[in-house]
Amino acid sequence: AMGPAGRCLLCGLLLAALGDTGTAVEDPQPDPKAPCANWMGGAPGYPGHNGLPGRDGKDGRDGEKGEKGEQGEKGAKGDSGQIGSQGAEGPRGFPGTPGIMGMKGEKGEGAFIHRSAFSVGLTGRVPHPNVPILFSKVFYNEQQHYDVSTGKFRCSVPGMYYFAYHLTVYLSDAKISLYKQDRAVLFTYDQFQPNNVDQASGSVLLHLNTGEEVWLQVYGEGANNGVYADNINDSTFMGFLLYPDLDVH
C-alpha cells in the first residue's frame, strides 16, 4: 500500500514522462497541498506494531522527608537479659524516723527464781559426837531447807551447792566432818592449845539431787568435840545454791 505522499510522487513522474513524448495534454498543476488525484489511490494501511519498551531512566533525586508515622503496637516482651555487674555503693541514707513504741511485754522469770540458802549458828557449848550438830541460831533460813530440829540441810532444788563452816575451838581438840547422805566428804581437825581460843573452818562445792541431805558432825571419841560457842564466840554453818540443773522447771 502506498501513502498519499507516494502517490503524489508517482503522478509527478508519469506527467513528466508524458511531457517528454509530446503526447500529453497540458493539464493544470495539482495543488501541492492537496492529495494526489483519486486515480492511483490505494486503501489505508494497518497500524504498525508497538515498539520495544525503552530502557530504564536514571534514578531520580531523593524526595523530601515524609511526616512522622503513627506509633506502632507494643511488641511482645523480650527475654530477660543477663545479670549485670554490681554497681558502685550508694551514699549512706539518713536515719529513719523512730517507730511507734510497742506494748510492754510480760514480766519474765528472774535469773534467781530457784533459791535455796541458809546460815545458822551453834548455841550449845559442846556438841555430842557422831550425831548431826544442831545449829539452832538462825541467821537466814527463808526457804526452810535447813531443819533446826535435825541439824540437816535437805535439798529441794537439784544443782550445785556451796557449803562452809567456821567453828570456834575451845577446851579440847575438834574433829569435824561434813556429811552427805551418811558419807563423810570433808574433814577438819584442830588441836586445842591450853589457854587459847582457836578457829577451824572448811568449805566445799557439792552437787545435790532432790532429797539428799548435808550436815556437820563430830567424829571420833568425846575428847574430840571441842567445838564451842558463847555470847562472844560463834560457830557457824552455811550453804546456798550456786546454780540449778538445766532441766529444773
Explain this structure to me?
It is found in: Secreted. This protein is mainly beta. The protein has a domain at 117-244: Jelly Rolls (Sandwich), CATH 2.60.120.40. Helix content is 7%, strand content 30%. It has 1 helix and 10 strands, in the order H-E-E-E-E-E-E-E-E-E-E. The chain has one helix at residues 4-21; strands at 117-121, 137-140, 146-147, 152-154, 159-180, 183-190, 198-208, 213-218, 225-228, 236-244. Strands 1, 2, 3, 4, 5, 6, 7, 8, 9 and 10 form a 10-stranded antiparallel β-sheet that branches. A hairpin with a 4-residue loop joins strand 3 (146-147) and strand 4. It is rod-shaped. The two termini are 139 Å apart.
Provide key terms for this protein.
Tumour_necrosis_fac-like_dom, hydroxylation, mainly beta, rod-shaped, secreted, signal, 249 residues, C1q_dom, Jelly Rolls
- Count of helical segments? 1
Q: Whole-Å distance between the termini?
A: 139 Å
Oligomeric state as shown: single chain
Q: Averaging pLDDT over every residue, what do you get?
A: 82
Q: Which H/E pattern describes the elements?
A: HEEEEEEEEEE
Name the CATH class of the domain at 117-244: Mainly Beta
The helical percent reads under 10%
CATH topology of the domain at 117-244: Jelly Rolls
Radius of gyration: 72 Å
* Strand-pairing-aware structural class: mainly beta
